[in-house]
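During the second year of the project, the team shifted from modelling isolated chains to modelling whole assemblies. The rationale, set out in the original proposal, was that interfaces cannot be judged from single-chain predictions alone. As a representative example for this report, we include one of the complexes processed in the last quarter. Its constituent sequences, exactly as entered into the pipeline, are reproduced here:
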Amino acid sequence: MTAAAFLTARELSVRLAGRTVLADISLALPAGRLVALVGPNGAGKTTLLRALAGLVPSQGAIDVGGDALSSLLLRERARRFAYLPQGHVVHWPLPAGDVVALGRYPHGATDPARLTPADAAAVLRAMQATDVVALRQRRVTELSGGERSRVALARVLAVEAPVILADEPTASLDPRHQIDVMKSLRAAADQGTLVMVVTHDLGLAGRFADTVLVLSDGRLVAQGAPVEALSERVMADVFRVSAYRAEHQREAVIVPWAEI
Amino acid sequence: MSAPSVTVTADIAGRWRAGVMAALVVLVLLLALVSLGTGPVRLSPFTVIDALCGGGSDVQQVIVQEIRLPRTILGFAIGAILGLSGAALQGLLRNPLASPSLFGAPQSAAFGAVLVIAFGLADVRSYALPVAAILAAFASVFVLLAIAGRNAGLLILILAGLAISSLAGAATALVMNLSSNPFVVLEIAFWLLGSLDDRSFRHVTLALPFIMAGAILLWSQRNAFRALSLGEETAQSLGVNVGRLRLAVILGTALGVGGAVAVTGTIGFIGLVAPHLMRPLIGHDPARLLVPSALTGAALLLAADIAVRIIPSSSDIKVGVLTSIIGVPFFLYLIMRERRALGGGVA
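Output from the structure prediction step:
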């Protein structure tokens, strides 16, 4: 890890409703990595994503691309962080193309019917990357779960932000769609984006991520390459399971196996 | 490349929306002409146009320009702001059952105004009236959103709205109860029914600045409503200041509804109905619904105000009564349609 860090947090902590949710998190992540954020339920994974994107107030320092997060205007933050929340909620039955086009909102393209050629090209690239061009006129409420998750991912890719923060993008998807989503995010990372993914699927984390961060009780307890971060000791202490470990086609296979 | 095809379909949809808008504008203009021609002396649309342009007899000019024009302007402006604020509240709350009247805003505004009238703090032609109505409407919407919280479900919003409108109604009743002058009480009671009868340009100057300020404020937030379709958190991550948006919508609704109620009493349900009539034609994009909903609201109130002058009855039917008589069954129909979401409870 010699590359310069693009996103850093120093002694980050978050208190919500009088309870410390995150404490003393320090990390430095370079561009072009896929980072998996794992940990048991309630460990603070979602809160960490929100704090990094500036969506919840936090103590400590966050720097992104050489600027302090606190010094950035809301719109400038929105251009640097593309945030994909859990659940892919869309409250109105909008056409999928309009939803993807909302990814250009931080760039001033607030009306999907009036995109500049540059914005339209970014929307098209994002829709091609997730294979949703054919769905653009369908209402999102009428799409299947897998299609909806691809549209949501396209919306995030359309921001073309240097950092993508995705909260459980593979939850409730079938295996094929899980792999599709992870491959799209992997491709974004390979093109230089810093991608941070919250997941409970240690198998996907082990296979696709460059770096795994392990959160437990609001603290960062391990970080590093998947096989190191998800060591037997971490699996036992944090997740209280043992794991089957192997290698397949030169990629790490980690499958949680039995409770301890 | 499929980029051109994306724009072509957008163009077709855009042309369709422009056509709907043009049709609405024509409808509103026609209704305005009919409204100017309707009354004890019936005038044809051509006579009305003539009189507006300074032609026709002196009597016709007085009838059209001085007696009926203020009423028609108020009908248009108040219908429009009710439709607009309904669409804006539905956009903010991402909820098709949101509307000012269901949230107790007009009822609270009426309480504010009644308080001023009953205690003789001002006569019905003073700016104290709209200011009191606006403050009360602001307080009611603010309290409602504070109670409902950030991701309010249908059930909580409607229950809180019911509580607030009941409280406003009870407070209004209390004021009337305590008022020693029976004539004032009678006047308030009739005024509460909501009417555009006998309104002058004085009333227009009283209400219009507030209505316009509210309309501009709500319209300026249109793009944020679109981003809000993805939820508050995502909208915020796209650069929308959600806290400021909420305040703008509360303030815009209070200015518009308060200003309207101050001169006409309570006219309900237009804000609920107008966006629903437009969704099948315009689509569900909350930003694109604002102006068509305003035009539909204007058309609805102008039509209702024409109807109360045409329907034969022993005494005047108040337009606020008519909109509620039509609006409440529509509300029941919506509840039936949204039954599943409501039955889901938390929503």
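Chain A has a mean pLDDT of 92. The first strand of chain A starts at residue 5 and ends at 16.
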